[in-house]
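Kindly inspect this today.
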Amino acid sequence: MRSRRLLTATLLVALAAFPLAAPAAAADYERVLNGTFETGSPDPWWSSAGVTNRVTGGELCAAVTGGTTNPWDALVGQNGVPFETGQSYTFSFDAHATTAQPVTAAAGESVSPYRGIASQQFTLSPVKQRFSFTFTSTLDFPDAGNGQVAFQLGGQAADNTICVDNVSVIGGVKPPGGVNPNPAKKVQVDLVAYVPGLPKRATLVSTATTPQTWTLRDSAGTAVATGQSTPKGADATSGDPVHLIDFSSFDTAGTGYTLSVGEDSSFPFDISADPVKRLRYDSLAFFYHQRSGTPIEAQYVGDEYARPAGHINVAPNQGDNNVPCRADLACGYTLDVRGGWYDAGDHGKYVVNGGIATWQLLNAYERATRVGDASAYRDGALNIPEKANGVPDLLDEARWEADFLLKMQAPDGMAHHKIHDANWTALPTRPELDDQPRRLSATSTAATLNLAAVAAQGARLWKTIDAAYSAQLLAAARKAYTAAKANPAKLAEPNDGTGGGAYSDDTVSDEFYWAASELYATTGDAAYRTDVTASPHYKAASLNRGGFHWGGTAPLGDITLALVPTELPAADVAAIKSAFATVADQHLTAMADMGYAAPYDNSTAGYVWGSNSTVLNNAQVLALAHDFTGAAKYREGVFEALHYILGRNPLSTSYVAGYGDQAMTNAHHRFWARQNDPTLPIAPPGSLSGGPNSALQDPVAQRLLTGCPQQKCWVDDIGAYSVNEVAINWNSALAWVSGWAAEKSTPPVPPAADCEVSFTAGRWPDGLSAQVKITNTGKTAWTDWTLGFSLPGTQRVTSGWSAQWSQTGRDVTAASMSWNGSVKPGKSVHIGFNGSGAGADPTVFVVNGRTCKTP
């Protein structure tokens, strides 16, 4: 929607000279998107000032304010419509009006000088009629350029409502669509930065079957390194013939580096840890921008992004102060659901998205306090209104949504699934100018368990910070969990998609496991422990390369059980941690064969809506595998995932706004909508695009990207909501991973050894019997311990004593028993096992994450 204006008075005169032509016989290529409005959304149809678009009864109905002078003073239209010079087109539509009036249908140019192609006036009545006219294009807008169709609805004294349906522009000889219009480089790099001390890899697009010479240049153009690429061949996911370039040997910090092969050069990039540290905070700033029910103040975001509070019952808002249920639900009460974060590019607020997003922010803090560095999230770290209240800022931001989740709890303890406008909000619409009524959808088991999980998690984290709030959260969590068990199959309606996404989920056993895990970790109650251990998801049974998301939350429970000390058997906790390493290894194996390395499994569904969040959630799995094992390969894998997100991909695009020379700009968003309205801002730095979606689930993507290879199914267009929307649960993934990466952007210091392990074994041709002595050489007593080592050759543990033994491949784990977990400084514990097979003694032993000394 580059412009909402189409025709001026002068243009109307010019159009009268255009002759009508016979219909084209070559092909019936449809030029208009979403002309039947079957999606329930008006996108990508826009409306001018004084006109409100809504899809009602399967039609696009425009409420037009009267008192305008000219027909073009009130418009409904669509941009990006392709036309070809000299080709014939037929423009047809169904229409009716509450009050009879003339309406002009027009085709022309969407940007200055707004040249016209054709127009014709029709008189509408309250009875729906079919209208049609044919014309020959005098302008050329191929491949969805600056062409436009519009309905002129103005020039009437009184208000009126005009409805259209089955809008179609058929004709031309070239089918609309094609490849992504964004320019791509042949040398693909992270457009932002590579961290010193870590691998530095790039992708060359080349059909050459022999190694190619690459050159790394500094900002002055001086060659600082050179080498040879490694041909990899055809990359099916991107459609590119690729080579790998590894320039890890060069490690000098600096800015403005470029990598070139022959005449082809990459976008510039830095070698520095600073950008990822900045991204940690920009990705979190996204959530303040998305706050509902409070002014977004210039002192925190700058004048461009400042706006009044949205949805607080200040006209024209109808507000969130006392929101009723949908009329067909008749719940008999209203709720005050002010606050929270707008979920995505619209003004809806969804509990199942808010749940995982809040959990992910809280988990970033909890993980940092237990195995990392929480100082990055201290009070004053973020530029938000609460930055001087004595509470860590990450908790302050998460509380904004946690409070909203509490408000969505119904009197019976269940939680409403979502709250949003009665109809899809027009694009663009500033939050404070949204005049639609707000409605609660039904309560659901999934939403209730999201509330239970996050509230229980929050109760744990706020216990020493705000005891009263902690108690409030825990009470809500218990009530919600009890309500969910009483209503175990109250599923969200899959057809509840008018005005907001349905977010239906027909399996909630994962949410039960997640919520029980959080409640058990917080309370230690036996009933919750029973639900945890009896779940089919226990011990990371659901963790795989597909990752986790709002509809698949079982791994969130696993992460909590792995991080938070409980009375679960040490072997079970070790099994959870081992599962993260196993899946992380699967990712690394797959990434080694990819042209553009990313932890993503496209083997079943291709690239899906929000694929970038899946990449980052899987990067969180890699990060936790590093936390649990200390293995450097997993740390490197996390940064490879960030390189993909930040530009080392087949579109040479950083999917994070404000990061890199070719970064996402035109997010699908009602306020960050400069593409539609030049007075509005673009997406702020740190906002993550949803990323490639090979299903092409919006009209703009369908027009522009038909036939795209999976990783290239993306376009930076505000109308392409299935590939370029933003969402809180996508940015929470970016915030978690970039925060972890910022912490790990300097070489890790190995923890000081506080253990010694001696290993002796008696062997025979096909077996062994081993004795292991573990000594606490530190200054602190152990309450439990876990030993890990690898058995070379074909050796397998067949039985053991004084420990809980398990083996996966060559990796052996021994966990303490209830009676020998406590080991004081200077004391030892003796364990052993019998085994089969042949091989040498293990050489590296790890106890509680630390590599031990050996005699």
User: Anything to note?
Assistant: The longest strand covers residues 160-171.
